Here is the input.
Amino acid sequence: MNTFIILGRIDSVDEVKETSSGHQYREITVREARPYKNSEGNYDFDTHEITLWKSLAKEELKVGDQIMIRGRIQSYDYVKDERVYHNSELVAERISQYAA
Here is the structure.
């Protein structure tokens, strides 16, 4: 099963963009606290870039919103300068917003 769930706060929201084939998308950055404290007694955070497609890209989202995202990890290869690169991205399938 290829699924991820992230609960965190939005750090950034890009503008809605459109592909050459007319599909709308945007990227958001979500900051998620780790479940344990570091050696200084503070919580560290992980930051995730997440891609939203079609109707999810149109959702009203703003920096600071607490959200839960369920989605999938999408991998692909591409060639640049005669070299093959591998990339993975987090693609949202469902978003739930929570009151602060």
Q: What stands out?
A: The chain has a mean pLDDT of 94. Residues 5 and 70 are 5 Å apart (CA to CA). The beta strands are 4-13, 17-18, 24-37, 43-53, 66-80, 83-98.
